[in-house]
Amino acid sequence: MKNKPTYWSTGRIGRSILLTAPMVLLIGLMLSGNLAGGQSYVHTFSAVVALLFFVSMFWMMIYTGRTDRWRAVVFIIGALLFCISFISNLIEVRSSMTFSDAEQLTCTIPFCHIVTTMVIIPAAIKQTIIFPGSLVEGYASISSMLVIVLGFSIVIGRGFCSWGCFYGGWDDGTSRILRRPVIRRVNSAFRWFAFAMLVLMALWSAESLSPKYCEWLCPFKAVTENERIVDGVTLVKNIVFYTLFVVLVVVLPLLTRKRIQCATFCPMGALLSLFNKINVFDVRHRADLCINCGRCDKACPMLAIENHCPTLTCSKCGRCVDECPTGALRYHVRGTSPDRHFTWARTLYIYPAYIFMVTLLGGSFVNGLALIINLFI
Amino acid sequence: MFESLLIGLSTSASCVATCGNVVIGIIMANRQGVGRSFALLGAFMCGRLATYAVIAAVVAVVSVGVGGIGACAMAVGQILLGLLMLLYAFGRTWRLCVGHRASRRLYALCRGRVVAVAAMAGLLSALNVCPPMLSLIGSSVGADHVVGRFVLFFIGSSVLFLPMPFIGTIRNKAAVGIIGRAVAAIVAIIFIFKGFATLFYNF
Ligand code: SF4
Ligand code: SF4
């Protein structure tokens, strides 16, 4: 069998420290608001723990040469702590996880990146933002989220789904619980269903001038915020949210070891796949090194591999790159040779991806951790 | 009369958002080139025009707006459109999903009748009276040239449908076909749900 080529820093402590050092500075800078004085003792302690955690996970990525394993640890814990921090913030501000008509009318609902798929058309043709959130002020304002998400997507494309999305960690986590899948074969054609969702939600929301996916179909309403049950319609909506969460985020990922919600249902994932087209990073397959073992097809949680080649819907999580025994799959910068410079291609990719991950998950990570510590002291 | 052309033009985007799902589903699921896609769009538009003509005739003759019966007709239209789209979506994948006999029949029913399905979908989707159409009906009651008004509204509101057949230029035909069928299936569920909800609220 062909040997898997190793990265420049794999197994080398000195080189790994060298590559990690700039990241220490960058993460420290990003968490500086939490580390600065004036915070509670617990909050500062949580920020220090977060800093050490983020840095050590990055170092492990560099030192072991495995990307997905360490990325997933940060991503999954980040998603859980995000929800804890988000819910506690809601309870603090409005004493409830639910929102009422009054909050919708005063436009105080935090903006979530998935709404991007529904606001674009009405914003373009009717100059209206159809989401009841604040445009510039407050927590998760529309403009700040749009800038972050679109900026992120231009740089790493659908990498957002594995490195930035604060929901993705849920089904990434549940899909890893069982060591072997109960349902072994999932037709990769199901991933196109997310594109149908994108088309429909964009048009349906433009027609009705309200974000239909958020109102009726988002599984993550179950772990963030949802509409207060005041009549039959809101009851049905809540039943739909919780059912979709259980089926798409817990049961199916558990049985298939695939990220079913992200791969087949999320309209934002479909939109971000299109960004993969204009993005400089991709995961490249080298046919000359491939021994057709099929490990990558089985491993890919996004159903994105066809004939051992990553396709448009790849979220650049790096699992296939880790799994491939011959190094036939590797991170790549378009326009460069995939044979040479593969260490640099990977480093160039994981740097911005990891920075974005800490940008999006860092603050809620610290808050969530502080909340948990406060429960025990 | 020309105000109806302006209403149509200014609301074309909303018409595309309402009925565009149906056209996109049909065109994409059919996986054909641009020419064939234009034929399907043409059939859909003819169906839509036929319904407009009937509504215009009713408004001109009876001189009344949309009342309880109108809402009922709309609900039935939505349910029928939903069923048609469901048939269209699954008629092309049924073979893969269920036992052979039922699937073969369903498949045979749809195959070769795509143009008819598109025309029928146009006919039924125009029954799905939207706010611009309601305002047109309101302003046409008791006015002159009612049919002319509806035709001009139809022309104006059709403009943004024209780029849709270019979906046929996308190279990954297999993916386009699957997305189209999924769109048709979800549209079907939405229309059936809307139809029953309208019936429920009116009676
Ligand atoms: S193709 Fe590889 S990098 Fe892309 S989503 Fe699948 S496993 Fe992750
Ligand atoms: S994991 Fe995939 S790319 Fe790597 S050798 Fe096996 S089949 Fe080829």
Describe this protein with a few key phrases:
A: 377 residues, globular, B: mainly alpha
Task: Describe this structure as you would to a colleague.
The complex is a heterodimer of chains A (377) and B (203). Chain A has 377 residues and is mostly helical. Chain A has helices at 13-30, 32-35, 41-64, 68-94, 101-105, 116-126, 142-156, 160-163, 168-174, 193-208, 212-217, 232-256, 260-264, 267-275, 295-299, 319-323, 342-376; strands at 98-99, 226-227, 281-285, 305-306, 309-310, 329-333. In chain A, the strands form three sheets. A two-stranded parallel sheet of chain A has the order 1-2. Chain A has a two-stranded antiparallel sheet with strand order 3-6. In chain A, helix 1 packs antiparallel against helix 3. Chain A is globular and about 65 Å long. The model of chain A has no long low-confidence stretch (mean pLDDT 89). Chain B is an all-alpha fold and 203 residues long. In chain B, 46% of the residues are buried. The model of chain B is unreliable at 94-99 (pLDDT under 50). Chain B has ten helices and no strands. Chain B has one domain (2-202). The chains are: A mainly alpha (377), B mainly alpha (203). The structure holds iron/sulfur cluster (SF4) (2 copies). One iron/sulfur cluster binds next to helix 15 of chain A.
Provide a brief overview of the structure.
With 377 residues, chain A is mainly alpha-helical. Helix content of chain A is 59%, strand content 5%. Chain A has one domain.
